[in-house]
Amino acid sequence: MRSIWSGSLGFGLVTIPVKLYSAVQDSSPGLNLVDRKDHSHIRYKRVNENTGKEVDWQNIVKAFHYDGKDVVITDQEFEAISPEKSKRVDIFRFVRISAIDSVYFETPYFLEPDRNGEKPYVLLQKALEQESLAALGTFVLRNREHLAVIKPFQGILVLNQIRFSQEIRDLKEIKLPKDRAVRPAEMKMALELVRKMTGPFDITKYKDTYAGELMKYIRSKAKGTRVRQPSMKVVHRNPTGLMEQLKASLSNKRRKAS
Questions:
Q1: Which domains does the chain have, with CATH numbers?
Q2: pTM for this one?
């Protein structure tokens, strides 16, 4: 793996040199965009809107349109604005990980101790593990400041980029039913079904089956084999049949269990 950022973790007067690695990879087949007529690959070009000519990456800079003109800011200027933030994850609080709702979580990264950072890295990892805590901090990546949670994971530290509160849309945009009353009998049966389906969480049991089916289809089509395409449609069930659906679900679970 290749690190995408190097700097340090800082809490109190303790500084831990670290490297940041992407913790995830795409499991879906890589699909190309091609022309329907001759299957030529489609290319995206960076074109100057005035001249129509293609522009090399080395000649492309970032700018902010301000007061009628574009103010160009280079990568060096981004770092110079706040150099300590560009090279440091500042931990300012320790929190219970359960206190952070999953809607805030975004991108995970592995943290690796850099030179002379091994001992304080292990110390922080074990302290968080023992207290069942996570560290909350801020860091700058790709010229943007991010909020981050650092937590222990299988003997290492993982940094999870999390969203700021203003990035979460207002719930008022979601239409909820006006009548939210639930009959006691329905609640009792729903709880019974939930309890019967409750069990330990083991992520290794779950696979990306869609990607597997897609690759199987691609291989068959490449060989010229006709593959039957199953159809599926969304069924909007009558809400008056809720009790019957719950009963049938419980009955089905009992049959599977036996």
A1: 5-25+61-167 (2.40.290.10), 184-257 (no CATH)
A2: 0.69
